[in-house]
Amino acid sequence: MRLKDINPLLAETHAQTTTAAQGVPAGQPEWLVKVVGSLLALSLLGCATAPSDGLDWQSFVATFAGEPLRSVAYPSGVMKTAMSATATASIESGTRKFESWCSAHGGRSGLTQVLATSSPSVASFHQALSAKLNGDQALGLPWTPNFATACVENKATRAVVAVMISVEGPKNEARERDGKVLEEVTRVFLDGGQAADFSAAYVKREADRASRLAEDFRARDAARAEATDRLHRHIRVGDRTSLGVVVDIRPPLALIQYDQRYVRISGRPAAEWLPIQSLSAPSD
Q1: What is the separation of C-alpha 171 from the centre of its chain, rounded to a whole number of angstroms?
Q2: Burial code of 7-22, b = ≥16 C-beta within 10 A, e = fewer?
Q3: Do the beta carbons of residue 255 and residue 268 sit within 8 Å?
Q4: Are 67 and 80 in contact (CB under 8 A)?
Q5: Are the CB atoms for 145 and 162 separated by under 8 Å?
Q6: Cα 99 to Cα 94: distance, rounded to the nearest angstrom
Q7: Distance CA 179, CA 59 (A)
Q8: Which of 35, 94, 235, 247 has the largest count of CB atoms under 10 Å?
């Protein structure tokens, strides 16, 4: 119901109340009408829905500011970037709008870390998003607040209907326009299928990354073992070891001048004679 329809209802309520209040002391019908009218107006306001609640997903996404973009960071879904006078307030407003849309479509909404405890598909998505953000940090990208809100079916399966990720841009990238400082807000919209694709893509990326790390570790370990074997068989003054530098050799011993850091940590003397076969090549 629209707010402009409240006045006729209040007038009708006033007439009915005045009739029912015959015989009541003067002044009370007017007071009663005001109370009833106020309660009616409040109830109508509480039942009002946002204009975007009845839209389908694509039309709902279109109501947010910004041009639709495709991003390598989000291989599925639609990304939109807009400027706001207050990024935090914009994100909170957008989240309420998303939650209202979800409720109007019979779903249940919440942050992904909360819904992950009851929805396997949300748990998979949240794990994938965490892997992406951790990967960004490993690449040296600046940390920015990310808020992922999901809409799930009100069924036992809690299948994902849609997800909206809201990202607050770095403060040092704020822009000034018409005397106002504007902050960047990026949103990523994914329907259920796109959320599943995102999860699968980042699960695969994480598996590939773990495999590469394991392969790199094995290669470094093999190279160090080869360097250690070479040190044992052909040790020379000036060779570096994992503890310090070889300064003298008297087989089967070698005099090692320890690295200063090792001396401080271990409390050992500056140099010691050690068995050559106990020495290891440096890890680097």
Answers
A1: 17
A2: eeebeebbeebeeeee
A3: no
A4: yes
A5: no
A6: 9
A7: 33
A8: 94
**If we measure between CA atoms, which residue out of 111, 145, 112, 151 comes closest to residue 128?**
112
Q: What is the pLDDT of residue 250?
A: 97
Separation between Cα atoms, residue 17 and residue 79, nearest integer Å: 54
d(CA 195, CA 10): 47
Measured CA to CA, the distance from residue 170 to residue 30 in angstroms comes to: 56
Residue 63's pLDDT is what? 96
Q: By C-alpha distance, which of 57, 167, 158 is closest to 110? A: 158
* Among 204, 212, 208, 211, CA closest to 128: 204
Closest CA to 101 of 148, 66, 149, 147: 149
Instruction: Please state whether the peptide bond connecting residue 251 to the residue before it is cis, i.e. omega within 30 degrees of 0.
Output: no
Q: Residue 166's beta-bridge partner residues?
A: 147, 187
Return d(Cα 78, Cα 110) in angstroms, integer. Answer: 20
Q: pLDDT averaged over consecutive 10-residue blocks of the chain (284 residues)?
A: 40 41 44 45 48 94 92 85 90 96 96 95 94 84 88 92 92 73 92 94 84 93 95 96 96 96 94 97 88
Kindly report whether the global pTM for this prediction surpasses the value 0.90: no
